[in-house]
Amino acid sequence: MEMVKWKDVLGKEHLLMEGKGDDVFHVIPSQYDDEGNSFTQIISREAMVEFIKKTQIMSFHE
């Protein structure tokens, strides 16, 4: 499974993890839902590229 980590301009860590098919998991480990789980959303690879363009992420590091 491929995984990419980065910190946004506010210092919050983000993870993108490869899922099945065209799915990618976007996780923010420091942000929790009502059940105490880390924030997670499933996005398509196409949506991931658009997300990166909109947030202007210039570099990734593993």
Q: How much is the radius of gyration in Å?
A: 12 Å
Largest sheet report = 4 strands, antiparallel
Measured as a percent range, the helix fraction is 10-25%
Basic shape: globular
Q: What's the structural domain tally?
A: 1
Count of individual beta strands: 4
Task: Tell me the fraction of residues in β-strands, as a range.
Answer: over 45%
Report on the structure:
18% of the residues lie in helices and 45% in strands. With 62 residues, the protein is of the alpha+beta class. It has one domain. A four-stranded antiparallel beta sheet has the order 1-2-3-4. A hairpin with a 4-residue loop joins strand 2 and strand 3. The protein starts with a strand and ends in a 7-residue tail after the last helix.
Name the descriptors.
alpha+beta, 1 helix, 62 residues
Task: Give a brief outline of the structure.
Helix content is 18%, strand content 45%. With 62 residues, it is an alpha+beta fold.
Ordered list of secondary-structure elements with their pairings:
Blueprint: E1 3-7, E2 13-18, E3 23-32, E4 38-44, H1 45-55
